[in-house]
């Protein structure tokens, strides 16, 4: 799949978004098709370095057992429409951060999953008010994305309930952050 297969409305939406977004293909190893400027700023990677590769490149050799299990379940299971989990990622320069990853499936009206939609947020050093602002922006993004995608016959799966579970997710992110700050972590 190539960029020309992505609906124009979605391309425009990605670049205008105030939060880090990525779009992946649903085939084989879920290669990235599109990232926006906020994603590039967050990770330090250019389009040329990430497009066509699986987003797991951001994990390097971090274990991320729980997060990987949640993501695998989301990708393999037909019933789970979205997932949100903290996961240790690394910027291009090697600096680790805890990414509060949100993923959802973009589905054609026929029921076929067309794309994987993801949003990333660095919870490692953020203040709680920034996370609240991000959650509000992600909620707006999902609400606005629905009508934008509908023009192309695509539906975003999942709901804002995944976002509503922020308290538990942030608690998990803080535990992950404590591990990240522990002596001996690269």
What does this structure look like?
InterPro entries: PAS, PAS-like_dom_sf. This is PAS domain S-box-containing protein. Keywords: Chromophore, Flavoprotein, FMN. Residues 26-78 form the PAS domain. It holds the Pfam family PAS_9. The protein has one domain (3-181): Beta-Lactamase (2-Layer Sandwich), CATH 3.30.450. Strands 1, 2, 3, 4, 5 and 6 form a six-stranded antiparallel sheet that branches. The chain has helices at residues 8-16, 37-43, 47-50, 65-76, 128-150, 161-164, 166-181, and strands spanning 20-25, 32-35, 82-90, 96-108, 113-120, 154-156. The chain is built from seven helices and six strands; from the N terminus they run αββαααβββαβαα. With 186 residues, it is α+β, with helices and mostly antiparallel strands. The mean pLDDT is 82. The protein is globular and about 40 Å long. The chain starts with 7 loop residues before the first helix and ends in a 5-residue tail after the last helix.
Number of domains: 1
Strand content: 15-25%
The helix/strand class is alpha+beta
Percentage of residues assigned to helices: 40-55%
Please identify the top-level CATH class.
Alpha Beta
Structure characteristics:
single chain; 186 residues; alpha+beta; Beta-Lactamase; 6-stranded antiparallel beta sheet; 6 strands; globular
